Amino acid sequence: MIGKLNHVAIVVPDLEKATALYRDTLGATVSAPVDQPAHGVTVVFVELPNTKIELLYPLGDASPVGKFLASNPSGGIHHVCYEVPDILAARDKLKAEGARVLGDGEPRIGAHDKPVLFLHPKDFLGTLVELEQA
C-alpha cells in the first residue's frame, strides 16, 4: 500500500541554525522559510536526491509542534511521511484493520498542496505517520 518515503519531519528549536546546518555543513539545497498558518508551522524544505527533510518550527502559540518542542527542547524527529496512490482507499483499509486516523479522519491539504492524513503513533511503533497522496 505505501509507496516511497516522501519526507522526514524534524522539529527544531532554532530554524535559522537548523537551516544553516543542512545548507552550509551538509551541503543540501534548502528553501527559504515558508509559513504554513493552516498547520501552525514554519517549514524549511531540504531537498535530497531520494527524499526530503522538513524542518518544522512553531508558528504561533497554538502550534501543534509547540508541545513537542516543549517536551523535546533540542528538537527531534516528529513524523515520517509515506506516499500512497489513493489516500481514501488507504484510510479505509487502515481503519478496517484497527488503525486510528487522527482528527476527523478526512484528508486535508498538506504543506505540499496534496491530501494528507496522520495516523496515531501508538498504532505504528511509537511513530507519528503521515500519508500523502502521490
UniProtKB/TrEMBL annotation:
Alphabetized CDD domains for the sequence: MMCE
UniProt-listed PROSITE patterns: VOC
Highest taxon above the source species: Bacteria
GO process terms (BP): L-methylmalonyl-CoA metabolic process
Domain VOC positions: 4-134
Key word Isomerase present: yes
GO molecular function: metal ion binding; methylmalonyl-CoA epimerase activity
Enzyme nomenclature, EC number: 5.1.99.1
Tagged with keyword Metal-binding: yes
Recorded catalytic activity of this chain's protein: (R)-methylmalonyl-CoA = (S)-methylmalonyl-CoA
Pfam families xref list: Glyoxalase_4
Keywords tagged on the record: Cobalt, Isomerase, Metal-binding
InterPro entries, alphabetized: Glyas_Bleomycin-R_OHBP_Dase, MeMalonyl-CoA_epimerase, MMCE/EMCE_epimerase, VOC_core
UniProt family annotation: Belongs to the methylmalonyl-CoA epimerase family.
Name of the protein in question: methylmalonyl-CoA epimerase
Species, as recorded: Skermanella aerolata
Taxonomic path: Bacteria, Pseudomonadati, Pseudomonadota, Alphaproteobacteria, Rhodospirillales
